[in-house]
Structures are given as structure tokens and as C-alpha cells.
Amino acid sequence: VRANWGGGRPPVLVLVGDGPDRSRLEQVIRAVNLTDGVILAGWRSDVSRFLGAFDLFVLSSDSEGTSVSLLEAMAAGVPPVATAVGGNPAVIGPLMKDQLVPPQDPAALASVIAGSLQNPGRADRLRHLAPERVAAEFGLARMIGEYEQLYTQLLEASS
């Protein structure tokens, strides 16, 4: 994304989380001269405090269930970009399907990231759609309604 950035301040990648590959990742960042373009935030228990500061949330997993981190970012109004694996397409939904990319396709991922960052109208649309999607499909009211419907069906079937 930074290599093809069209001007202005280039984006910075913030990686939240930690694991056994951190030192290898630090070496790669230095080797490709991106020390000014990547922040390794490490493990954080307070991610929700600063989600709103992000322009974009990227989940580039090769496999995934239903990602809680994707749901949390979208609920905070952070535009998503995710690989089309596991539960990601269901979370992102049909109105934001252009934010899905094939797994292991860095060019497609970079293209959607750049398009999202460089198009303020698109970013604004996503900032509104993302939390609406989470509330409508994954929110507490939806869950309670579905449980109520299930219990009603079970009660009717048992009588």
C-alpha cells in the first residue's frame, strides 16, 4: 500500500496482538525498511479504547470462525477489510462485500485497503454501515429475539 501511495502522509500499520513470531516480524520490518510505517502494539486488554482512532480494520486470516475482533471493530464504526474465509463474509454482509478479498492474495488486499483509505466517501459509508450491520445481525436484541423464537417453538412442539 505504501509503495503505491499517491501522496500525502502514507498510512501506518498498527498490529495489535503478540505471539512467538514477534522477533521474526520485527526483523522483516527492519529488512524492508518499514520501521516508520509499522507499530507493534503487542498484547492489549484495552483495544476498544482506541479502535475509533483507526481508519481501517484489516483481518487477513487464512482461516477464521466468526471473528470477535472483526465484530468489535465494526461495532466501533471502523471500516473493515477481511479475507473471504470462515465467518467473515457473514459478518461483513452483502452491503460491504466489496471489502472482502481472497485469502493469500496480497495484491487484492492492498487494492481494497488503498481504495478504502483514499476514498473518503467510501470510508464514511462504511463507518455507518459497519455498526448498523453488527447491531442488526449480531446485537443483543437480535440474539434475544432468536432465543425467544426458539423457546416458543420448543414449547409448542412439546405440547
Kindly summarize this structure in a few lines.
With 159 residues, the protein is mostly helical.
Topology:
Layout: E1 13-16, H1 22-31, E2 38-42, H2 47-50, E3 57-59, H3 68-75, E4 80-83, H4 88-92, E5 100-101, H5 106-118, H6 120-138, H7 140-158
Parallel strand pairs: 1-2, 3-4, 4-5
Helix pairs in contact: 3-6, 6-7
Task: Describe the overall structure.
With 159 residues, the protein is mainly alpha-helical. Helices cover 49% and strands 11% of the residues. It has helices at residues 22-31, 47-50, 68-75, 88-92, 106-118, 120-138, 140-158, and strands spanning 13-16, 38-42, 57-59, 80-83, 100-101. Strands 3-4-5 form a three-stranded parallel β-sheet. The protein has a two-stranded parallel sheet with strand order 1-2. Strand 1, helix 1 (22-31) and strand 2 form a beta-alpha-beta unit. Helix 3 crosses helix 6 and helix 6 packs parallel to helix 7. The chain is elongated and about 70 Å long. The chain starts with 12 loop residues before the first strand and ends with a helix.
Low-pLDDT segments: none
Mean of residue pLDDT values: 94
Q: Which H/E pattern describes the elements?
A: EHEHEHEHEHHH
E-strand count: 5
| Sheet with most strands: strand arrangement | 3-4-5
Summed up, the helix count is 7
Shape: elongated
| Biggest sheet record | 3 strands, parallel
Strand content: 5-15%
Q: Over the alpha carbons, how many angstroms does the gyration radius reach? A: 18 Å
Structural class estimated from helices and strands: mainly alpha
Instruction: Tell me the distance between the termini.
Output: 61 Å
Q: Work out the helicity level.
A: 40-55%
Q: What is the subunit organization of this protein?
A: single chain
